[in-house]
Design the sequence.
């Protein structure tokens, strides 16, 4: 099993590939919030073409975790993030996508210490 440092290095590379600057502390908090799922090759990635998975992201992360509502254009936010990550990218790392969603919706305070 990979160490936390090793998985964080993967996420760093994903941001480099996107040409995106990021807040390492916020990314660390998002990754830690996902628990052991970041170490599993299946659960650590997002299948954006799977409608059930997108619904789970909306319900469990955006609504329950971030406190958003349907009126916050959740689908639009998810689409914007998927565009940034790359729709054809088969390795959409869950912490990277969740981090970008947090930033998109301005919900950094959810992860403030």
Sequence:
């Amino acid at each position: 099993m990979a160490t936390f440092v090793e998985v964080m290095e993967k996420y760093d590379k994903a941001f480099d590939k996107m040409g995106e600057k990021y807040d390492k502390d916020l990314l660390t908090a998002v990754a830690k919030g996902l628990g052991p799922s970041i170490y599993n090759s299946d659960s650590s990635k997002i299948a954006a073409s799977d409608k059930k998975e997108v619904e789970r992201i909306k319900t469990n992360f955006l609504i329950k975790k971030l406190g958003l509502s349907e009126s916050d254009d959740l689908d639009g936010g998810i689409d914007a993030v998927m565009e940034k990550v790359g729709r054809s990218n088969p390795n959409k790392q869950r912490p990277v996508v969740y981090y970008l969603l947090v930033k998109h919706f301005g919900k950094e305070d959810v992860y403030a210490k």
